[in-house]
Structure formats: structure tokens, C-alpha cells
From TrEMBL:
<protein>
    <submittedName>
        <fullName>Carboxypeptidase Z</fullName>
    </submittedName>
</protein>
<feature type="domain" description="Peptidase M14">
    <location>
        <begin position="120"/>
        <end position="436"/>
    </location>
</feature>
<keyword id="KW-0121">Carboxypeptidase</keyword>
<dbReference type="InterPro" id="IPR008969">
    <property type="entry name" value="CarboxyPept-like_regulatory"/>
</dbReference>
<dbReference type="GO" id="GO:0005615">
    <property type="term" value="C:extracellular space"/>
</dbReference>
<keyword id="KW-0862">Zinc</keyword>
<dbReference type="Pfam" id="PF13620">
    <property type="entry name" value="CarboxypepD_reg"/>
</dbReference>
<dbReference type="GO" id="GO:0008270">
    <property type="term" value="F:zinc ion binding"/>
</dbReference>
<keyword id="KW-0645">Protease</keyword>
<dbReference type="InterPro" id="IPR000834">
    <property type="entry name" value="Peptidase_M14"/>
</dbReference>
<dbReference type="InterPro" id="IPR050753">
    <property type="entry name" value="Peptidase_M14_domain"/>
</dbReference>
<dbReference type="Pfam" id="PF00246">
    <property type="entry name" value="Peptidase_M14"/>
</dbReference>
<dbReference type="Pfam" id="PF01392">
    <property type="entry name" value="Fz"/>
</dbReference>
<dbReference type="GO" id="GO:0016485">
    <property type="term" value="P:protein processing"/>
</dbReference>
<keyword id="KW-0479">Metal-binding</keyword>
<dbReference type="InterPro" id="IPR034239">
    <property type="entry name" value="M14_CPZ_CPD"/>
</dbReference>
<keyword id="KW-0482">Metalloprotease</keyword>
Length: 583
């Protein structure tokens, strides 16, 4: 019928217009409703307010105007704009369009809130729709993009938030949050869907904290790394899901055991003085096994984006764990195995756990009382040891520090538990993202001001370097205290500076380096990251149908060189066939 929005019809909200629907449209001059998607209303209102002055003096309007503060930012724009649509409905063409109902699966009609924070489980299609709708609503700060596809062909969809979405800005740190790496651990998936809507909503409302965060940080949210596994788990439903149903991807691979084992290589190199133990290359033999397309998508994503900080959201317990996840003694299932950045990782874990009400609860009723003595944080290998984890790979292959957050005891919680989960995790998620601004950042340039790409930034006493991005910018997460920082690159003399990090810093200190070229004939060799054989094609640049590098399965023998399979045997450490390798 005329005056009826199409979306309302599907919700049962349209009715045949009557004479009472006719109205004289007047300008909408209500400050609380100034951001409504329409600009005219009519009087009397549905609540019998006969003028703008009478409406503004009503208790309903006063409540609406303070809703933002009463609810502390929770769902307020949706509730407020819905209230506006009821108190001062849209008037167009001499007719009033009243919001009788709205189906959450339909596109919201103009004049009503464009998003609702529905505390419900989202199917793959619903998740995609919510993310794209959120990005469209906040197009000036948000964008969706795909990093690849799952084995069954579902897009791995990311939504990013930034002052300039779609591009890296100099000295703006990049953060990623990943959920649903195990398909049946769904709380993280929903938390990131809610977080995306919350960031958009709060930015539009002018929240100083959220605007400051988005304007100074590029935030990437991947709600579901394993959408195929989720479909298996969701088919059983919340509360009925088995401990492992849907955990793996469609290839039956555990994605958090599918990354290259660089931790073993780290332990081997750590005993060699002067050897690089960061930015380790992916060993060639890794590609001879099954590499999930989801795993490969994450690795390519890390290569194209200079991430500084990351969190992987899981379920099944209530704890924050940090690297290393693989024990320094391969036969020890539980053994404290710290990284060189142990202090910083503990700060990151504490940042999440200390503001999580249940993680700080001293009651033994939460997940059987696990991790009470450790304050709900633990070194991963001290909990249980495993290889091929995503957090270890992030730390040893790139500049990125990643922690693992177990969000709760139930892997697939019922819908009625989702609101409470959001309340418990909203502040920890925001606090964790803000931690990316701890430490130092800056530029490494030559004497002409030209950026020096892949320069090394070292900290004395911490055997883990970071490298500069293509634009010459870098970020180094550091705990409070005094540090000696060294910048160096091949062909340049190194520069040393002393920095002091205060305990309560809210933004990274800027420390720039200007490198001077070495005189001719005095250039020293600067050891770089360990690389695979230069004759082999980069596996993340070109790949075959199973994820292996093109040509890696049958490398022709070079004249006088070793056959293609030789590096496999040399990688077996203590199980090497020495009788073969001596020839």
C-alpha cells in the first residue's frame, strides 16, 4: 500500500491506509533525533503530543535523551532511534509511516535504526550480511574485504576500522582479532560480530574513546576463520554440540595445529650465538604436507599487512595464554617455555584478564576453578604443549605478538548466555586493542629522509628484533623501564638510543632513526632472517591446488646439486639418516 515500506510488509507491519493516516508533514526539529534518516514528522504524535514543545517536555522524550548515559553505550543508537521513530514517526507525502514491526533478517527501512545488536547466533549468511551492512553504515571508517576462501568455498570475510579504511597509514599500528578458528568454539565469532557493530555505533555517537581508538589504529576483525567447521557444529546446535564436532575444517584439519613449526627451529638456533631467532622462514618441507586454504590465507594476510598485535578467540576454558605453545623440551607435555618477550606477553595477557569480571572471580565455580592461582593467565606450553599453533607462528615469522583467549567453559553457548558474554568481554577486547600503543614507534630513514625498508630494530637484552614496514615505519611493544634500542640495516652504520617507557603510558613514544651510509669498503655483513633455498619459488606467492608452492613437489636436480627431496631428510634433526646424508 502507499506509505508502506516493503520491509515492513514482510514483518506483518503494513495495513491498509485509513483517513487517520493523512497528516501535515513538518520539519523534525528534535535534537535527540537529529541523526534520524528522515527530516519530517507530523503531529499529533502516536502518544498524542500535539506539538514539538509538548513532545520535548514529555517523560518519554526526556528518557530517550539520557538513554546513552543510562545504558553506558550498550545498544543505545538502536534503542534511541527506534524511540524517535515511535515518538516522532516519519512523515512523507502527506502520510505517516509508523514502525509496527521489523524482521531482523530484512534490510531495515529508512527512518528506523539501521542495525540492531541481536544477541543471537549468526549463520554464515547472516554474519556476512551484518558485517557488510555495518561497513556500509560507517563507510567513512569501515570496509569489508576477503582474505581468501575456506575449503568449501566460503569467503573469509574481514571488517576493518580505520580513519582511512583500505590503506596502511604511516606509524598507525595494525591489530587483528580472529574468532572461530575451531568451528565449534563460537563465542569469539559472536563477540567480534557484536564488536564490529559496537565500534560503528559508538563512533557515530561521538564516543571520545572509540573515535580516538579508530583514528589512531587500524583494526581488523575476522569473526570466522573456520566457517565450514561452524556449519557442522551449528547443525547440532548449542548445548548439543560434542567436544570435537565441527572443530576441524572441511579437510578434517585442526587449523591451530596446521601452521609451520618454527618453534623447534627457534630452540635449535637459540643455542647458536649471533644467529637470528626472529622472522624465521617457512621450511620447504612444510608444504609437502596438507596445508589448509584457511591457514594459507592467514599467512598471506600477515605478509601483506604489518600487524603488531593479535588475539585468537577460543572457547572451552576461561584463561588467556601466551607463547610459546610448544615446550622447549619435546617430551615434556607441560613445561614453562617463555619467549624473549615474556614480560610484554604477560602484560598483554594481564590487560585482558584483569578487566574480565569472571577471570578475576576467585570462585571455584568457573570452569572447575582452573587457573585461579595464576590469575587466569598462563604460558601456553605450561598449560599443554603442541606444535603448529598460530600464536607461535605469528611471533617467530613476523613482527606480530598474538595471545590466545579462552572465552568460557562452554564451546557453543546457548543464545541466552551471549548477552552476558558480551558484557564480560567488551571492555577486555577494547583494553587489549589499546595495548598496541604501548612501547615505541617511529621511522627509520637514510640521511636524505628516504625510508629504509626491512631495517632491524633491536632491544638490548631481548633476542627478538622487529623490522620496518615498506614505508620505513616500525612499532616495538615494550614493557615499562629503560631500554637500549638499536636500528641497523645492510650498508648503514647502526644507531643506538636509550628510551624510558613509563608504567602508565597511553600512547607509544616516537623514536626515529637516521642511518648514515658506511664508507666504501667498510660495509659489514648484517645477518638476516633464515631463508629457504633461493632457487625455490616463494610458496605464498604462487601455489598449487593443495596449497603447496608451484614446482615444489618435483624440483629438477641442478648439475652437481642435491635432489629435490634432500632438504626433507636434513630437517629431521635427531632422526636424520646419517648413512645417506654423508654422501
Amino acid at each position: 500500500w502507499p506509505g508502506c515500506e516493503p520491509a515492513w510488509g514482510s514483518a506483518g507491519g503494513c495495513h491498509r491506509p485509513s483517513a487517520s493516516d493523512s497528516a501535515t508533514c513538518v520539519d523534525l526539529q528534535l535534537q535527540t533525533c537529529s541523526d534520524a534518516a528522515y527530516n519530517q514528522t507530523a503531529f499529533p504524535s502516536p502518544l498524542e503530543h500535539r506539538s514539538r514543545e509538548a513532545l520535548e517536555a514529555s517523560s518519554e522524550y526526556v528518557l530517550l535523551s539520557v538513554l546513552h548515559h543510562l545504558l553506558e553505550g550498550q545498544c543505545n543508537p538502536d534503542l534511541r532511534l527506534l524511540g524517535c521513530a515511535v515518538l516522532a514517526p516519519r512523515c512523507e507525502g502527506g502520510r505517516v509511516r509508523r514502525p509496527w514491526g521489523l524482521d531482523a533478517e530484512e534490510a531495515p527501512p529508512s527512518g528506523l535504526p539501521p542495525t540492531f545488536l541481536h544477541f543471537t547466533h549468526h549463520s554464515y549468511a547472516q554474519m556476512v550480511r551484518v558485517l557488510k551492512r555495518t561497513a556500509a553504515r560507517c563507510a567513512h571508517i569501515a570496509k569489508t574485504y576477503s582474505i581468501g576462501r575456506s575449503f568449501d568455498g566460503r569467503e573469509l570475510l574481514v571488517i576493518e576500522f580505520s580513519g582511512r579504511p583500505g590503506q596502511h597509514e604511516l606509524m598507525e599500528p595494525e591489530v587483528k582479532l580472529i574468532g572461530n578458528i575451531h568451528g565449534n568454539e563460537v563465542a569469539g565469532r559472536e563477540m567480534l560480530i557484536y564488536l564490529a557493530q559496537y565500534l560503528c555505533t559508538e563512533y557515530l555517537l561521538g564516543s571520545p574513546r572509540i573515535q580516538r581508538l579508530i583514528n589512531s589504529t587500524r583494526i581488523h576483525l575476522l569473526p570466522s576463520m573456520n566457517p565450514d567447521g561452524y556449519e557442522v557444529a551449528a547443525a547440532e546446535g548449542a548445548g548439543y554440540n560434542g567436544w570435537t564436532s565441527g572443530r576441524q575444517n572441511a579437510q578434517n584439519l585442526d587449523l591451530n595445529r596446521n601452521f609451520p613449526d618454527l618453534t623447534s627451529e627457534f630452540y635449535r638456533l637459540a643455542s647458536s650465538r649471533g644467529a637470528r631467532t626472529d622472522h624465521l622462514a617457512i621450511p620447504q618441507h612444510y608444504w609437502w604436507g596438507k596445508v589448509a586454504p584457511e591457514t594459507k590465507a592467514i599467512m598471506k594476510w600477515m605478509r601483506t599487512t604489518p600487524f603488531v598485535l593479535s588475539a585468537s578467540l577460543h572457547g572451552g576454558d576461561l584463561v588467556v595464554s601466551y607463547p610459546f605453545d610448544f615446550s622447549q623440551h619435546p617430551h615434556e607435555e607441560k613445561m614453562f617455555s617463555p619467549t624473549p618477550d615474556e614480560k610484554m606477553f604477560k602484560l598483554l595477557a594481564r590487560a585482558y584478564a584483569d578487566v574480565h569480571p569472571m577471570m578475576m572471580d576467585r570462585s571455584e565455580n568457573r570452569c572447575g576453578g582452573n587457573f585461579l592461582k595464576t590469575g587466569s593467565i598462563i604460558n601456553g606450553a605450561d598449560w599443554y604443549s603442541f606444535t603448529g599453533g598460530m600464536s607461535d607462528f605469528n611471533y617467530l615469522h613476523s613482527n606480530c605478538f598474538e595471545i590466545t583467549v579462552e572465552l568460557g567453559c562452554v564451546k557453543f553457548p546457548p543464545e541466552e548466555a551471549l548477552y552476558t558474554l558480551w558484557q564480560h568481554n567488551k571492555e577486555p577486547l577494547l583494553t587489549f586493542v589499546e595495548m598496541v600503543h604501548r612501547g615505541i614507534k617511529g621511522m627509520v630513514v637514510d640521511k636524505f629522509g628516504k625510508p629504509v625498508r626491512n631495517a632491524r630494530v633491536s632491544v638490548k637484552g631481548i633476542r627478538h628484533d622487529v623490522t620496518t614496514a615498506p614505508g620505513g615505519d616500525y612499532w616495538r611493544l615494550l614493557p615499562p623501564g629503560s631500554h637500549i634500542v638499536i636500528a641497523q640495516a645492510p650498508g648503514y652504520s647502526r644507531v643506538i638510543k636509550k628510551v624510558t617507557i613509563p608504567a602508565r603510558m597511553k600512547r607509544a613514544g616516537r623514536v626515529d632513526f637516521i642511518l648514515q651510509p658506511l664508507p666504501a669498503g667498510t660495509q659489514k655483513f648484517l645477518q638476516g632472517p633464515r631463508r629457504s633455498s633461493p632457487s625455490l619459488q616463494d610458496p605464498l606467492e604462487g601455489a598449487g591446488p593443495s596449497g603447496e608452492p608451484l614446482g615444489a613437489r618435483r624440483q629438477p636436480e641442478a648439475s652437481g646439486g642435491k635432489p629435490w627431496w634432500w632438504s626433507y631428510f636434513t630437517s629431521l634433526s635427531q632422526h636424520k639418516p646419517r648413512w645417506l646424508l654423508k654422501y
